[in-house]
Amino acid sequence: MTKGRRHAVSAIIDRLAMGFGGEAGAGLLLMLVAGLALALANSPLAAAYHDVFHQRIFNSPIGKLDTLHAWINDALMAVFFFVVGLEIKREVLGGELAHPAQRRLPVLAAVFGMIAPASIFLLVVKGRPELSGGWAIPAATDIAFAVGVIALVGKALPPSLRLFLLTVAIVDDLGAVLIIALVYTSGIDSGWLAAAALVFALLVACNVTGVRHAAPYVIGAVALWYCVLHSGLHATIAGVLAALSIPFALDRRGESLLLRMEHALTPVSAYLIVPLFGLANAGVAIPQALPEGSALLLPLGIALGLVLGKTAGVVIAVVLAEWTGFSPRPAGSSWAQIWGLSALCGIGFTMSLFIAQLAFPGQPALIEEAKLGVLCGSIVAGMAGFIALRLSAPRG
């Protein structure tokens, strides 16, 4: 693609982002895409919808990625995780997570907000060990969806609440990445893993030696992704690792390569990659996914984990932090607003759907049941959070 065309595509995506209203618009777009995927999966077009994403690509340049679904989940989502990694690094080095006093409450809330949903899930599926691998599905928060709901509430809420939600979600994302790397990994190929380690070391060396041009990092990131894809680790981990190697310090022109990359890729991720992922993964054929009897445990455990576990975990963390003097709750917020914001943390969607694919590989029936639980739980959590925040917002 020529430089002029790249600028044209970037301009179109930026305009789309502005038209939808920035971060809030990304959440609203994701809601529309999720609804479209559900409608297609339960319409006469269901077979065609499934074939588009799952029909085999016989001439795929990478053998492991032989469907459009695989390209989206293993390749495009690596870019999404790269953006997540850039955001985490920026926040840790120069943002809301840079100072211990600022990160105390979000980190505590994120930790409690992951432990409580996982505990509720395991309690619900007790006696069904084949389902226990899904414990991490309700542990993640979808930042785009949650911010979209806050936008619907309006501007009457204290800015500190939105900032708290964003920082909790960032720490939450980091926790989800660690879970994917440490838990949902099997069949490690030591040769490819060693190659990945070498590429990552070269990327770090570029940073340390003062390389500030984007090209070496882009080439290295693609090479790292290819090695990780064949190593047994999930390919998206390469996105986070590559992001950690990007320089945050200013160059001679007073610019940060990390900030430039984040600015360029955030709209692409939010308005192209994540919606494509939602379209490819949110389509659940409800009549087939709706189980009976004890099989209800999987979607029920996920939904309860998202709705009850996330809310309880975050609220308990905030109460404990304020009661012990560890950290005050967000400035200007009421307890009703804390409850509503905690409920919004139960919107799992993107990361929860992603983990569901990893938790039950080769078991499409369980993946569909897990998707149903994620969608139902996220909808209920979003509605509960919206109602609570709307009712608790000051009357203008």
Structural class: mainly alpha
Work out the helicity level: over 70%
String of helices and strands? HHHHHHHHHHHHHHHH
Radius of gyration: 21 Å
Which consecutive residue ranges, at least 5 long each, have pLDDT under 50?
A: 15-20
Please count the helical segments: 16
Q: What is the total tally of β strands?
A: 0
Strand content: under 5%
The multimeric state of the shown protein is single chain
Mean pLDDT: 86
CATH class equals Mainly Alpha
Would you give the CATH topology? Answer: Na+/H+ antiporter like fold
Largest sheet: none
Output the CATH homologous superfamily: Na+/H+ antiporter like domain
Q: Distance between the terminal alpha carbons, to the nearest Å?
A: 51 Å
Q: Shape from CA axes? A: globular
The count of domains is 1
What are the SSEs and their pairings?
Elements: H1 3-20, H2 22-41, H3 46-54, H4 68-94, H5 100-124, H6 143-153, H7 159-182, H8 190-208, H9 214-229, H10 237-244, H11 257-281, H12 286-289, H13 297-324, H14 335-344, H15 349-359, H16 364-392
Helix pairs in contact: 1-2, 1-11, 2-6, 2-11, 4-7, 4-10, 4-11, 5-7, 5-13, 6-7, 6-16, 8-9, 9-10, 11-15, 13-14, 13-16, 14-16, 15-16
What does this entry show, briefly?
The protein has 396 residues and is mostly helical. The chain has 16 helices and no strands. Helix 13 (297-324) packs antiparallel against helix 14.
